[in-house]
Amino acid sequence: MQALVSVRSPEEALQAAAAGVPLIDLKEPRSGALGALPDETLQAIVQALRGHGHDGEISATTGDHPPTALQPLLAEAQRVAACGVDVVKVGVLPGPGGLDLIAALAQLPHRIVPVLMVDQGLDPQLAQATCEAPFHAVMIDTVGKRSGSVLDHLGHQRLKSWIDLAQRTGRRVGIAGALRLEDITTLQSLHPDFAGFRSAVCEGDRAQALSPARLHALMATLIQ
């Protein structure tokens, strides 16, 4: 299981890279679960990471939008991809329009990762469609970060079923959503390909600065 850490600036990105984080995700935590960063910040982070020799995957988010905002979401995905990231993460909220959004995202000429937001549970039809489409990877996450982790929302068995479904269809699968360092053993028992962290590696809540000590603790725990 690889670690994905979300960062908001070149300084944070270099801290994560120095700790050995392989997957670095660019987002603005103060703007929501998948808050988007402006072009100039995305480009500066990509340049900083590549300039310091980071050869791991760099992803970026497109913001929190309802699935019915199809054209704005597709335009945002194109904007983010043009900033030089390897992967574009697009949040898929439950409700009308989700299946149409998945179908449209699958047609984009970029490495897209749909992120299903599961605060209210996981829609089986949407999960199936997401796993069957030819995405680079698939993820689940939560919108609310103060009402428990994704482990609390779905539970071990439902998470395992989701991971098995995704991996059977050939997708890489990731889990995020208020995960804590003490969740790592449980996460590893589920065998996702990667897990995403932000608040667990911050000085305070997810809107605060990254903690180098917590970053190193994360990586040390993963390699035990």
Task: Describe the protein's architecture and organization.
The model has no long low-confidence stretch (mean pLDDT about 95). The chain has helices spanning about 10-20, 40-50, 70-80, 100-105, 125-130, 150-170, 185-190, 210-220; strands at about 1-5, 25, 60, 85-90, 110-115, 135-140, 170-175, 195. About 40% of the residues lie in helices and about 15% in strands. The protein is of the alpha/beta class and about 220 residues long. The radius of gyration is 16 Å and the shape is globular. The chain has a single domain, classed as Copper homeostasis (CutC) domain (TIM Barrel). It has an 8-stranded parallel β-barrel with strand order 1-2-3-4-5-6-7-8, surrounded by 7 helices. The chain contains 8 helices and 8 strands.
CATH level-3 fold name = TIM Barrel
Report the principal-axis shape: globular
Low-confidence stretches: none
The main sheet comes to: 8 strands, parallel, barrel
User: Which structural class fits the helix and strand makeup?
Assistant: alpha/beta
At the fourth level of CATH, the homologous superfamily is: Copper homeostasis (CutC) domain
Let me know the average pLDDT.
95
Classified by CATH, the class is: Alpha Beta
Helix content: 25-40%
Summed up, the helix count is 8
CA distance, first residue to last residue = 12 Å
Rounded to an integer in angstroms, the radius of gyration calculated over CA atoms is 16 Å
